[in-house]
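## retry 2 of 3
previous attempt timed out at serialization; input unchanged, resubmitting
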Amino acid sequence: MIQERESNVEPDSGSASNLAVVILAAGKGTRLNSRRPKVLHEIGGKPLLSHVIAAASQVVPPADIYAVVGHQAEKVKAAAASSGIRFVEQTDQRGTGHAIECAREAIAGYENVLVLSGDAPLIRSETISKLWRFHQDQQAAMTLVSAEPPYPSGYGRVLHKAPDSHPSDDDLSPGTPVSPEVVAIVEQKMLTPEQLSLREVNMGLYAFRTAPLLAHLGKLTSDNPHGELYLTDMAQVLHAAGERVVAFQTPDPDELLGANTIAELVSLDATLRTATARRLMGSGVTIFRPETCVIDADVEVDPDTVIEPFVQLLGHTRIGSDCLIQSYTVVENCTLGNRVVLRQSCVLEGSTVADGALIGPFAHLRPGCEIGEEVHIGNFVETKKTRVGKGSKASHLTYLGDTVVGERTNIGAGVITCNYDGVHKHLTRIGDSVFVGSDSTLVAPVTLEDGAYIGAGSCITKDVPAGSLAVGRARQITKEGWATARRARHKAKE
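## retry succeeded, writing output
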């Protein structure tokens, strides 16, 4: 059952308030040779479908977007659930025309509907908006997006009316240029020898007035090699019914490319990542050797930050200004402040790093860490669900898990917090201005109060009061001459 649509946009003649968007997302993607739904394959760090939803959501509210799902529908719904869009199920995948038939109830209350492809992730909201405005200006029943690519083979060709049969300017909105009417879209396999020279192709993106679309949708037939109902045939159906069908020609056909093979998918990923790098560099970010970096589409970086080669910035990462991200570092779903330095080969996941912090090299921040201002997390230090206060340091070979560290505290080399007792995780609390000597073991739950001093090599199992010294190791025994005598005995036996 389709839920009632909601909209926060006030209706007017130029708005998209009475516009629905239908995204076709039911296909298997057979040529990908994958069990995963086609629209859930990823480029730029998120599923193909998510890119299309993001673009459409800038034109209409998510509540007016309907994804037609079919193959592994529940997985597709789960992946897009947080977007706020609605779903229509196409249990039997019988073509794009059948997909719109399945969405009939959902779109019946709208005056217009845009139809997008869920596997064309490079589509921009600007292009969708231009199509919508063109469709209104032309007062068309159907507007298709066309292009003239260098190699049109494989695409359906667009057939137009003879030039002298077009309407006059008086039939359209004042100042609107006349667009040639479309007679039909002919698939590659059905082209006559004369039609093979046609270069204008259909790109699979449409705008319809809903009433004529639904009134004539039942006229589609499955008389084709695949026995399916093709939405492309609506051009001929509507033209034959006396309705106006036009083409909106895009200057950038690459924007509407889909992914039918893994090779095409990877090519789209490269295109998107190149565009992302250029966007960031255009805003003042320095990226050395951008072709070596992996930067997801939703990553944001402020000006004057420098990114060295072979860096990966993934997910919803946010990086401030004047930062330095050195080579082979991976940052996923993190927020970095200003003047942060991530030295070589660090891995950061789901954490925040405040202004002026220095991380690495070879440091690992696992999810849930909050690193304060001017903190130093050094080489081969691992943290997990740990908060470190301003000016504190853990410079070498340390593990801090489920730990709260105060300000100006020094954690020596080789220190570990024993946070797991085999059943439960426990918290270690370390106050301000604490000194933890090298190779110490802190067995949680335990608290080191402000100003405490822990002798090197200690195993601390009890709380340490403020300003106290704690030493938890065996007494040293020195036997003078023992080693010399042992060597002498071994030499005598040779």
